[in-house]
Amino acid sequence: MHSTTLTLIAALLSLSSTTAAQFSNQSAPFSLSLLSDDSALNGVTLGACHEGAAIEGLCVGGTSVFHFNTSSALVVPNATAGAQGYLTYELQGGNFNGPSSTRLWHLEDS
Description:
Structural class: alpha+beta
Radius of gyration: 17 Å
Distance between the termini: 46 Å
Shape: globular
Number of helices: 1
Number of strands: 7
Order of helices and strands: HEEEEEEE
Largest sheet: 4 strands, antiparallel
Strand content: 35-45%
Strand order of the largest sheet: 1-5-6-7
Helix content: 10-25%
């Protein structure tokens, strides 16, 4: 039983690495800022922030550097929305720094 569990974990880690490796087209670094009719929010930057145990978010006033990773193997489903991919960044916590990402995709209106 123990051997089967370890084999399953190794297989999942391998699959995870393979999936992440497919999104190897990385954009130039950029920052995120809001575009809003509300003058108090327009132009405000967003940054990655640690919100709790394994919980991350986007916080107002951040200084994170982001990249957008895409894959040449995927078909772009909507030319206006553009490619699907991962928003990647370096998460800076109180006593750690670590690479992190979030998945972005476009949903069609029905």
